Fold this sequence. Notes:
Strand order of the largest sheet of chain B: 1-2-6-3-5-4
Strand content of chain B: 15-25%
Strand order of the largest sheet of chain A: 1-2-6-3-5-4
Oligomer: heterodimer
Helix content of chain B: 40-55%
Shape of chain A: globular
Largest sheet of chain B: 6 strands, mixed
Order of helices and strands of chain B: HEEEHHHEEHHHHHEHEEHHEEHHHHHEE
Number of helices of chain A: 19
Largest sheet of chain A: 6 strands, mixed
Distance between the termini of chain A: 74 Å
Low-confidence stretches of chain B: 1-18
Distance between the termini of chain B: 34 Å
Structural class of chain B: alpha+beta
Mean pLDDT of chain B: 91
Low-confidence stretches of chain A: 1-12
Amino acid sequence: LIGLALVLCGLARAEPVPPVPIPPMSVPAMPAVTVTGAARPTWRVLRPGSHVSRVHFVLDRGRRSAGDGMAFHLLQRVLNEELRSAQAPWRDAGIEVKWSIGAHNSQWVIDGIDGTSIAASSSAVQTLLAPRLRQRTIRRARELWLQDIDQAPRRLNRVHAAAVQQVERGADGPPVRRVRASDVAGLRRSALVAAHRYLIEGGLRGRVVVADRDTEDWVVDTMRTVEASLPAAAAPVASAPTPPGSAEPVRALVDHPAGVLAMITVTAPMVDAADPWPDRFAAAVLGGGFDSRLNRALREAAGLSYAAEASVTGGWVRVRTAVRAADVGRAVAVITAVLDDERAPTEAEIEAVRRGFLRAAAHEMRLSAAVGANFANAMTKGEGPGAVGDRVRAITLLSHSTVMDTAARQLSADQRAWVITGNALEIERLLHAEGWQATHRMDAGTLWPDPERE
Amino acid sequence: VYIIAVTVAWALSGLANAGSDGPLDLEVHRFNLNNGMDVWVHVDARAPLVATAMRVDLGTADEAAGLAGSPGIAHLVEHLMFTGSPAAPDGAHDRWIEAAGGETNAWTEHDATVYTTVAPANALDLILALEADRLRGFSAALSERDVEVQRAVVFEERREIEAAAGGTNMAVWQAAVFPEAHPYHWPVLGTVAELEQVDAEAVRAFVARRWLPPRLRLIVAGDVDPAVVERRARYWFSEIAAGSPVPRPEPTPVSLDAEERWLWTDPEPQLTVLWPTVARDHPDAAALDMVARLLARDGSGALWRALVAGGPRVERVDAWQWNGRLGGYLGIAVHTGDADFETVLARIDRELLRLSRTAPEVAALASIVRLRRAAWIRHLEDPVHRADALAKCGAASGTVRCLALEMAALRAVTPADIRRVVDVWLLGTGRSIVSSVPMDQLGRALTDSSPLVLP
Lengths: 454, 455
């Protein structure tokens, strides 16, 4: 009776679901940016009412600028441990400080609440400029890194990710290797001191200040300290070109006997590495939200997967999911059918993706951390502050025909590389029934040869 | 009665003393519908977005009070709520929200199920219509095929969680600290054997007297006009009958008389010590929360100093007070690395005794309050988090000033309170200890540990 009453209530409602069509959202307004200074510019983004104050100091060098990145990796671990465990006024004030060492640049991020408290951050900058790098902290960071290296072959997702990377590098590319435990054990304090000096000497490209007030009184001491200690960066940073992807129709089977799950990735080079937006739109139609084609087919229709995802990263378009090993044959068949589906993205699909990207941009602009990261990333690439707004324009203006053309060529059968990781014995039998033959076989041993035996 | 009276008096005094807490004192327009549904509106026009959180007082704990023998059904219902209705069939809920540029999410807790949406602000009416449509049309559209497919998806979710290092932690801790008869003993994901028995009729029966307006709190946060939200919410929800919800399970005190030791296998070695403590409304909840933060804080926490910086030099130590409607526990989890479990346990015991004998400094407590406040401010920048936080703390306190109240309760904790709750809740009772070890390192577990079997 209660159920019947509910149904009748529903019928009594005059207005149907869904209501009237929803007009496209207005393009989110980008925050205004004030630029001051020439050699080491400061980009100020004012966000009244946020109560959050952040400064990103963008340094011009990263771990790849100096060849071997191992010392930089350990340096990052040691520095952040030192910052996290410091007993200093800035920590008591709720300020968080982090040094992220990227491939070609690095960033100091000082994240505080209210301007008055971040004033304490000048003492945090002293740690960044002259870290103690105590032997005890270095030993501990080394131990944790070694444990991580030791555990990696047991983790299904780690083995799978390394195999995908290996396949993308192609037969002629450099092999993916585990870091040698003996190399980590051999890293000395002097190597970290040299790595730190190298990063500092590269100089400061600029600063991004995201704050809820329009004065810099709260951070002026910190800025002066940094300016006095770091030279201006010598030349604009050139964005690293995306390497052309290998286009081999590989089918790699990676043995990881433990567990009942199988991980599946299909990867292929982007259609246009110079402009990511057409690939991103086409990938989102495939595996963006719950209503994307892969999620409809794999999750909602077949119940084979908890989630499927298509993403565009580092020059590659990847489809990724995890299924029960016993279902791997069916999952491969469903994924193949979706990828081979010749129906071009419909206007409705493309507009849904566009609205989703615009909403995500508006959402990001609401978060101080994302605002700071977006502008700092533009700065590291040598772009102007307008680059963040350009992204929104690119989303708004991308044509249906470009997306349809990209979708027709994206993850095409002649470029598709499959990587499937799980219990190879069981998986191979199931895939054989689907007519799927492995061209390459790997396991945690061949993928990551035991470095101690080399 | 005494406990209730003390709780109410404490809550009221805390509220009176809360004062304004700036960014945490969110302005909320609140109204109730005639069917008992509670609606809160928080205006935040800094982005052209709307975020909603529909919190349903129906969680894993409600399974025990109703359809016996179907653990996991509340979580299965969460999945099924997206499959459709006669008015929004075949997954139209996600299709229409995504077509508007929005995104949905949902999760099941022991006390509640939460459905969130974030979308352009002009999609407000669509969100309200679809949330109301679940109440109207869910049962009518539900098919055996829907149940079969979503059950398979839930099993996949379970496999992914079990494959991840530490993925089963929450279920293991709940099973170790709450006895079998307690509603919090069940894992949210349920059991494979029992879920396989669930059919569409069982789901309809479970929902019919639980997924009802008196058990709903809808939070709308974003670039909205409260008057419009109220008008449209009344339009979509008012005619839905209140129904006759079944009573929810009553809080059941939990205590352990002795120490229980459990063995669990996990790729990541970890020693976890758990004490049954208090439910979220208890006057000691804030002090226990403070104890956990004092113990594990990086750089200055007693356990951090004793286990990470010195002593066995473990990877990491976490401590937390988990509060539910029906009970709670304080947990200390040590990611041991290669460290010996007995040594780690001895250090924990030593530091707890020290905390019982030597009160922490007021400055240390004040610092914890500042860190907590800073974390809240960062968290609340996201409109979805804002809606969810209001829904969650609203469920706990029933007042729109719940976040400020929570900070006030934390500020009111004194060094003497810390010593007292350590004595009463951690040193004066039994506890449950879980040795999680990789399959090939079973010998590292504490002596006399019995294999833990999840329900």
